[in-house]
Amino acid sequence: MKKFQMLINPRDKRGIIRPEIYGHFSEHLGRCIYGGIYVGEDSKIPNVRGIRTDIVEAFKKIKVPVLRWPGGCFADEYHWKDGIGPKENRKHMVNTNWGGVTEDNSFGTHEFLDLCEQVGCEPYIAGNLGSGTVEELSQWVEYMTFDGVSPMADLRRRNGREKPWKVKYLGIGNENWGCGGNMCPQFYANEYKRYQSFCHDFSGNQLFKIACGPSGGDYNWMETLMNALKPQHVQGISLHYYTVPHDWDHKGSAIHFTEDDYYETLAKTLPIDEVITRHCEIMNRYDPEKQIALLVDEWGCWYDVEEGTNPGFLYQQNTMRDAVVAAMYLNIFNKHCDRVRMANIAQVVNVLQAVILTEGEKLVKTPTYHVFDLFKEHQGAELVYSHLENVTMPEKNLPMLTYSSSLQDDQVICTISNCSLKEEAEIFFEVTGRKAAHCKAEILSGEVHDHNDFDHPDVITIRDLPASVENGKAKIILPPCSVARVILSE
Ligand code: AHR
Fold this sequence. Notes:
This protein is of the alpha/beta class.
C-alpha cells in the first residue's frame, strides 16, 4: 500500500468551477435521441410529451447543467425548419453522417427545449454553418428568442409556443475543419464573423456565441481564430478531444481489453492537460483578461461498437476503466476552471462514453454516470489549492492518483481516483487552518472490466467508504481502480 499526504488550502482560491463543466452532448446519432431520450407520446414507456420520464429523472439526479444539441457532425446538415410544426408534415431526411438512416424530424426545436425545461438545464444550440445559410441561423435565433411581432416569432406562436425561450449558448458550426465543411482556419474565422453578426440578442436574451475550435493539439487553428476574433464576436471557443486507445481503424473493445490496453487508454487521456495548457497559453496572449472561454464540448472514450450493432450508431459499453478516465478528465477540467468554463461528454445516452444506456423500457446508469454523481458537488464551488506527492506508475509513466478540491458552503470537497490496478492508496488529508472533524467519503470501485448491463444494472454503484479522523486529519484507503469523493467539514 502506498501512503499519501494531501494538503488542501481552502484560503487559496483558484476560481469558480462553472456547473457547465459537468455538461452533456446529445446528437441525432444512433439511439441517442430516438429511443434514448425521445419515444413519442404514444409510447408505452412513461413519457411527458414524448420525452422519457426516467431519463429526465436521471439527468436531474446528476444536475445536468447544460445539454448540447443537435450535433456534432449532424448539426452542419441540420435545417431547423424541417423539425417544427405538425409532425406529420415534417420533412424526412437522410442522416448521412450516422448510418444513412431516415431522420423523421419528430424531435426538433420545441421538443429539445421542452426537454431542457423538464430537466432544468441550459440549452446549447449547435448551429449550421457548414451547409446552412446566414439567414437560416439568424432566423432560428429569432424563432426561439424574440418576444415581439416578427415572421419567426409569429411562426413559433402558430406552432404552439407563445413565449420565447431563453437560449444562451449558441455554437456556430461544428468541426468545420472536418465534417463541418473541410475549411482552413482563416476561411472559417471569416465565415464565423459573418454568421455571428446576424445572430442577435432579442427580448433580454443574451447569446454566448461559440466558435468551432480545434481538434486536440491543432494550435494553428487556435492561433488563427484568436488572431481574427475579438471578445465582441465570440464568448467561447470549443475544443474536441477523444480518447482512442489504439488507432481510429482499431480502436479496441469497450469491455474486452488487457491491462496494457487500460494503461494505454489513460496514457491517451492524460495529454488533455497539456493540450488545454497550450491552447490557454495562446489565448492568454490575445486575451489576457480571459474574456473568451475554452469549452471542451466533446470529450470521452471512443471504442469499437458493440458486436452486432450498427457501426454508424457508435454504441459501446462502459466499464470501471471509463469511470477512471472520466475522473481524470473532470479533475483536469476543474484545475483549468479559470479558462475552461464548459465541457460536454460525448454523449449522454447510448452513444460513445454514454452516461446512460437504454434498451426499450430498460435504463442502465453506467459507471461514468456515477462519476458525474460523485463530482456534482463541485458544480459552482470554488477550486482551491490541493497537492500530494504523486507516485509515477511504471506502466506508461502515469500518475497513480488524479484529484481536485473545491470549497462550497464551507465544506471542502475532494474528488480523487486511484488509477492503479494493483496498489491501494492510503491518503491522509490536512486542511490548512482547519481541523477536519467530519469526513464523509463515498466510492465507486470494482474490477476494471466491471460494468452495468440490463440484467445486472447495479454491479457498479456508489457506496460509503469508511473514513477515520485522528488528530484533525482524515484518512481513507482507496482500493485499486476506484473513484471517490471526500467531504471534509469542521
Ligand atoms: O460524437 C460523435 C462525433 O464526433 C461528432 O458528431 C463529431 O463532432 C465528432 O467528430
